[in-house]
Design goal:
Elements: H1 3-18, H2 28-37, E1 55-56, E2 64-65, E3 79-80, E4 89-90, E5 111-115, H3 133-139, E6 145-152, E7 157-158, E8 163-166, E9 172-174, E10 186-190, E11 195-198, E12 201-202, E13 207-211, E14 216-225, E15 230-234, E16 239-248, E17 260-264, E18 269-278, E19 283-287, E20 291-300, E21 313-317, E22 322-331, E23 336-340, E24 345-354, E25 367-372, E26 376-385, E27 390-395, E28 400-409, E29 422-427, E30 431-440, E31 445-449, E32 454-463, E33 476-481, E34 485-494, E35 499-504, E36 509-518, E37 537-542, E38 546-555, E39 560-565, E40 568-577, E41 581-585, E42 597-602, E43 606-609
Parallel strand pairs: 5-6, 6-8, 6-9, 7-10, 8-11, 9-12, 10-13, 11-14, 12-14, 13-15, 14-16, 15-17, 16-18, 17-19, 18-20, 19-21, 20-22, 21-23, 22-24, 23-25, 24-26, 25-27, 26-28, 27-29, 28-30, 29-31, 30-32, 31-33, 32-34, 33-35, 34-36, 35-37, 36-38, 37-39, 38-40, 39-41, 40-42, 41-43
Antiparallel strand pairs: 1-2, 3-4
């Protein structure tokens, strides 16, 4: 008797025994049908009630959208479009008429006036203003308000608790013409506590505003545009807070480096509220230590460095920093929109990350979130779309991501070679927890877990994964290899390509309950370069890998429902139906009863065979 005939006989005998007179053995057909009907469906991501000004998207994936239907606006100098607002809004108050001072100036504190066109020798009064900010700050006592009018080619240093207030950002500009010896040297430096900077613009050959050790500054309605080096920098022990601040088009220094929007150094503290970082270089916001928080912030169009043609991150978290962020939009940054490195941590809520571009040096990367070197990231209610290579990548021992109510869609392959495009990838002992996650139309793999990494999940949908752009291969929903592990419940793997669920290589395991694997399609290259090896399998365990499913349906796949190709599979209570081949078993001495615990095979072309079929390969 052939092995295929023996296998069919064994399974048939099991079903007959189950349907016999023994009251302790429930009929297999009834058990399978009931199990399929009672499979718990995955709960979808929930974004809750959108924040004020954000709107519920009208597309196929519901999420909270920060921009109006017309999208984010490109604003002129001194204006910004913040998340949740209808369009461009100018910073600060409207300018008074030429030569006039603003109305409503304080009367309960000393006020010092400075005008760039004033005659020298003034006393700082309204009628005889100083002609230099440096001079005005030297004369101002603590608690004073210094009113600034005009363009100033100087680098003032604030050493007392004062407010530096422009008559309006369009008419109060600090723009030094002489570059500093360090990229952190700024047009305006704060060395005192209790400093406020309001209604100013900054540009020129140095950075924007720097707070040094012991300094504390609050920035309101400040525009830093086309300055050089670093827009906002907070030194060891300095503190800065912002409200309505724009940092745009920072320029690299003479060596082609920097152009960073904001930098937090060791033990510095930065609180960004209602801020926009646009078209800066190397990094939109970068930490090397200290503490950072963000709320209602947009970081977009960050460019890679022109010399090394590298990086260009939107948010780069280094130095063991803990970052807390909400209502943040990261768009069209380079390399990785968010990078968390050096045992740092990030909590990001109610945000959007999309359309990351590759780095210039090799046209690779373009990731949405990259977590390495023992760092961690928690994303809650985050929409991610249009990245390259990987939507979320965690790599290295101790690196961990937690995704709750997250959508990752339309990740594309690398520009350099067309490879990659995974929704989520774990490697080198990384860990992930997923709760209510949707992965849609990514490339290559929806989820890939390898190199002894582990993923725990609940309420996951992986659907419509596409093949690689360059060759049409892959398109797998869930993929585990090289000793990786996925465990979880309430999973739907729908209309993917090549394989719905794949475990391959020794010590790789998948253990899931309440699972639907439906409609796996052939490879995209079936009509061109791979007509003879098109696959289209629901579940595959290969090369000593192991898969266990409980309460499941595997249905309507293009080739095989369950393929045991050198690995092992344990099925408990479910249905395999509507496939050309229900189960294909190629593992020597495999116990076919492992496929028959309350499992119904129905409406397949053949319920079971043992012919030699091609088995998919590893990825990465």
């Amino acid at each position: 008797m052939s092995r295929a005939t023996l296998a069919t006989t064994i399974l048939a005998a099991a079903m007959i025994a189950a349907c016999g007179d023994d009251d302790d053995a429930p009929p297999v057909a009834d058990a399978g049908v009931d199990a399929a009907a009672e499979i718990a469906a995955p709960a979808p991501p929930s974004f809750g009630t959108c924040a004020a000004g954000w709107r519920e998207s009208t597309g196929e994936v519901v999420h909270c959208e920060p921009w109006p239907e017309s999208g984010a606006a490109d604003c002129g100098d001194g204006a910004l479009h913040l998340p949740g607002t209808p369009g461009c809004a100018p910073l600060g108050e409207a300018c008074p008429r030429e030569g006039a001072w603003p109305a409503g100036l304080p009367t309960d504190v000393p006020v010092v006036f400075v005008r760039a066109t004033a005659a020298s020798g003034g006393d700082g009064s309204m009628s005889a203003p100083f002609d230099s900010i440096v001079t005005a700050l030297g004369a101002a006592v603590a608690g004073s308000v210094v009113i600034v009018d005009g363009r100033f080619d100087e680098t003032p240093v604030v050493t007392r608790s004062v407010e530096l207030r422009g008559v309006c950002p369009a008419r109060a500009l600090i723009a030094p013409s002489v570059a500093g010896s360090s990229p952190t040297e700024a047009a305006l430096t704060v060395r005192a506590a209790g400093v406020t900077v309001r209604g100013l613009s900054i540009g020129g050959a140095r950075g924007g505003v720097r707070v040094e050790s012991g300094g504390d500054a609050a920035l309101h309605d400040v525009a830093i545009e086309r300055a050089t080096g670093i827009g906002l920098s907070i030194a060891d022990g300095g503190t800065m807070r912002t409200d309505r601040v724009l940092v745009r088009a920072m320029r690299p220094n003479a060596s082609g480096r920097y152009g960073v929007g904001a930098l937090v150094e060791e033990r510095g503290q930065l609180r960004l509220v209602r801020a926009a970082f646009e078209s800066n270089v190397s990094a939109g916001v970068l930490t090397l230590g200290g503490a950072l928080s963000l709320s209602e912030v947009v970081i977009r169009d960050t460019l890679f460095e022109p010399t090394r043609r590298d990086v260009g991150n939107g948010l780069a978290v280094l130095g063991g920093v803990a970052v807390d962020a909400e209502y943040v939009v990261l768009e069209r940054n380079c390399d990785a929109s968010v990078m968390v490195v050096e045992a740092s941590s990030l909590v990001l809520r109610d945000s959007v990350i999309r359309d990351t571009r590759p780095r210039g040096v090799d046209d690779s990367a373009g990731r949405g979130l990259f977590v390495i070197e023992g760092s961690s990231a928690v994303l809650e209610r985050v929409f991610m779309s249009g990245h390259r290579e990987t939507g979320v990548l965690a790599s290295g021992s101790g690196s961990r991501v937690t995704l709750r109510d997250v959508v990752i869609t339309d990740t594309e392959g690398r520009v350099s070679d067309g490879g990659g495009g995974s929704g989520i990838a774990l490697q080198m002992n990384a860990e992930a927890t997923l709760e209510r996650v949707l992965l849609q139309r990514n490339r290559g793999t929806g989820v890939i877990v390898g190199s002894a990494s582990t993923m725990t999940l609940s309420d996951l949908v992986v659907r419509e994964t596409r093949g690689f752009a360059h060759d049409g291969l892959k398109g797998t929903g869930l993929h585990v290899q090289l000793g990786g592990l996925i465990t979880g419940s309430r999973v739907a793997v729908l209309a993917n390509r090549e394989v719905g669920i794949l475990a391959i290589e020794r010590d790789s395991r998948i253990v899931l309950s309440d699972v639907r694997v439906e409609g796996t399609l052939q490879r995209e290259c079936v009509t061109t370069t791979c007509p003879d090896v098109a696959f289209g399998d629901g579940l595959v365990a290969a090369i000593d890998a192991q898969i266990t499913l409980e309460r499941f349906v595997i249905a309507d796949c293009a080739r095989v429902g369950v393929l045991v190709g050198g690995g092992s599979v344990d099925l408990h209570v479910g249905r395999v139906s509507g496939n050309p081949i229900g189960a294909n078993v190629q593992t020597p001495e495999f116990d076919f009863m492992r496929l028959a615990d309350g499992v119904v095979f129905s409406d397949n072309g053949r319920n079971l065979d043992t012919m030699s079929l091609p088995v998919p390969s590893s990825s990465f």
